[in-house]
Design goal:
The protein is 9% helix and 44% strand. The protein is built from six helices and 26 strands.
């Protein structure tokens, strides 16, 4: 028995020694080191290193609710009966930066999503729908009153002075910085596609040359949208033959992208604030004839010779100057903006537009307006075949004041005018007076109905407003804004479409059946709750 025990113990010991020897030969599996997220302090608060790279990234965003009210005198027409509107907005920002031998390489993206409801009196955006960012609803109660909004607001790369992608136009300066609704008249395209180079000269001076997508700064070449058979797009007539019957040919006035807008900027930044001078040049073009020719008989005073050849392109331009003044001697954070712009064929550069819709010949800022202002960049003269640019100018001022670190207010106001080329209105009316088609003109030059027609009338706009915002904690704003806007004709009177009935003639105007006005006005009140993070 003792011999058996000794044999078993010896065998076990030998086996253990062999196993131990082989185990010692096997590699030891080490734990993978944990890659902790490291704070990146090179570019300010909120940045951290992307694990495994030398790129710093910051994630941020916004959540917002707006509720707006604007009265209306009209209960007819799509959206005109709405007096309230709502918008819920979400924003996601991603900012990635890497230090290189050429400086910082930056990529920035911003995506926005929103749900808007309400017609012309609420927060529904004609501009965003026309530019393809907002998708309108259908249905008896929703059509024209509800939008789902998706927008690539920013997507650009910055490197060694170069900016490429979708970004704010370099032409812009004040750009509604202190406003909720963005109602004042000033240059502010939400974003555009661009390729720009900026150079710094020291002492606070810098300059930028930018090639920008013309689509987002292009307003219409005015058209009657003549209703001839086979005509598509946005046609406008041009006289191509004279005789017993004046012969007209429709031309497509929907513009095409053939060259970028050229923008140049000179800027100065200092401790007291900043100043900027901007200039822009853009092409205005029309397309080939569309549809068949048509005749209009007995046009008084038409005269002249028939137009031959394709209408030549014209070039719009704009200049803008602005100054931003920091006023900490009033209160820390107080800031004053002053800005003015003038241009020809460039209403979206001067900012003479509607705060709730651009990119169309007629864009009212008023819910159920007595008349709608015309805001085209140019007209195609039907008697000369030439593109004739409109002129516009705007001035704006805005002041932000902090009553305390938690309470602040802004006051703002603007004035602007738009004038069409001399003779453009009469020429368009002459080309449409007897053809029997539905037109926007009523009457011929020299008649009462022509004198009170709002079509292609020179107009002005006035905007004034203020806000009060409470920030109980950092990055939370709870506020209210109210503003007043007035749109009027620079001379004469126009038909009040909300208070008139019957034929527009001297007798009905005298009896009061047809009423006329020189201006129309409204106000809007908007509440906002916003959290940035």
């Amino acid at each position: 028995m003792k011999l058996l025990k000794s044999s078993l113990l010896g065998t076990a010991a030998g086996f253990a020694s062999v196993v131990g020897a082989h185990a010692a030969d096997l590699p030891v599996k080490k734990a993978v080191p944990i890659e902790y997220v490291r704070v990146c302090s090179a570019y300010g608060a909120g940045f951290f290193y992307i694990p495994g790279t030398d790129t710093c990234i910051r994630l941020s965003g916004r959540a917002r609710l707006d509720i707006g009210y604007q009265p209306t005198d009209s209960r007819s027409g799509s959206g005109n009966g709405d007096t309230t509107g709502y918008i819920g907005l979400a924003r996601i920002n991603v900012d990635a930066r890497t230090q290189t031998a050429y400086g910082t390489l930056r990529a920035f993206t911003r995506i926005q999503f929103a749900s808007r409801t309400g017609g012309t009196g609420g927060l529904r955006s004609g501009t965003q729908e026309r530019i393809g960012s907002a998708f309108a609803a259908t249905g008896q109660d929703q059509a024209g009153r509800a939008q789902q909004f998706v927008n690539t607001d920013k997507a650009f790369i910055q490197f060694a002075g170069l900016t490429a992608g979708r970004a704010s136009s370099f032409f812009d300066f004040y750009a509604h910085d202190f406003e909720f609704a963005g109602a004042t008249l000033n240059s502010d395209v939400q974003s555009t596609n661009l390729l720009a180079y900026s150079a710094k000269f020291g002492e606070g001076f810098s300059a930028t040359v930018s090639l920008e997508d013309p689509t987002f700064r292009r307003n219409t070449v005015y058209s009657q949208t003549f209703g001839a058979t086979g005509v598509t797009g946005a046609p406008s007539p041009v006289l191509v033959g004279l005789g017993a019957t004046n012969t007209f040919q429709n031309f497509d006035v929907s513009q095409r992208n053939r060259m970028p807008d050229f923008v140049g900027v000179l800027r100065y930044d200092a401790a007291w604030g900043s100043a900027q001078i901007s200039a822009a040049v853009k092409e205005i073009n029309v397309q080939n004839p569309v549809g068949s020719t048509f005749g209009i008989a007995s046009v008084p005073g038409l005269g002249g010779t028939a137009v031959t050849g394709h209408p030549s392109s014209e070039y719009g331009w704009a200049v803008q100057g602005g100054v931003k003044i920091n006023t900490p001697f009033i209160a820390p954070g107080d800031t004053l903006y002053l800005q003015g712009a003038y241009g020809e064929g460039s209403t979206l550069y001067t900012g003479y537009s509607s705060y709730n819709g651009s990119y169309t010949s007629i864009a009212s800022t008023i819910n159920g307006a007595a008349f709608d202002p015309f805001m085209s960049d140019a007209t195609l003269n039907p008697l000369t075949g030439k593109i004739e640019t409109s002129t516009s100018f705007t001035v704006v001022g805005s002041f932000l004041h902090y009553w305390s670190p938690e309470w602040r207010s802004a006051v703002f106001g603007s004035y602007g005018e738009l004038s069409f080329a001399r003779g453009a209105r009469a020429a368009n009316a002459a080309a449409f007076q007897t053809n029997g088609a539905t037109t926007q003109f009523t009457g011929t030059p020299g008649t009462v109905s022509f004198d009170v027609s709002p079509v292609l009338r020179d107009t002005y706009q006035i905007v004034a407003g203020a806000s009060l915002i409470w920030s109980p904690v950092k990055d939370l704003d709870i506020g209210v804004e109210g503003f007043y806007t007035k749109v009027g004709v620079q001379n004469g009177r126009v038909v009040d479409r909300t208070q008139s009935s019957g034929t527009v003639n001297a007798a009905n105007i005298a009896s009061g059946a047809v009423r006329t006005v020189t201006a129309d006005d409204t106000y809007q009140v908007r509440m906002r709750v916003q959290r940035d993070f």
